[in-house]
Design goal:
2 strands, two-stranded antiparallel sheet, YggX-like
């Protein structure tokens, strides 16, 4: 049976992540409060951010930048700015 969480991003009950995907306290917070659906949405945004900013994920500054954007997106409902991207109409 799938684990469910009240997703803070989507503001609804949804299937939770199968395991902690990110290390540390932030990872625990994500595991406890973010759904698979919201995590999948973040992964798409993350890919766009990495490409747009030409981030090298071996660099600590790039990882810190992405972590800041991830936390803001998942918990503070702050949409990352991706130049030239127009979200689809709902």
């Amino acid at each position: 049976m799938a684990r469910t969480v009240f997703c803070r991003k989507l503001q609804k009950e949804a299937d939770g992540l199968d395991f902690q995907l990110y290390p540390g306290e932030l990872g625990k917070r994500i595991f406890d409060n973010i759904s698979k659906e919201a995590w999948g949405e973040w992964q798409k945004k993350q890919t766009m951010l990495i490409n747009e900013h030409k981030l090298n994920m071996m660099e600590p500054n790039a990882r810190a930048f992405l972590e800041e954007k991830m936390s803001a997106y998942l918990f503070d409902d702050v949409e990352p700015t991706i130049e030239g991207y127009v979200p689809p109409e709902k």
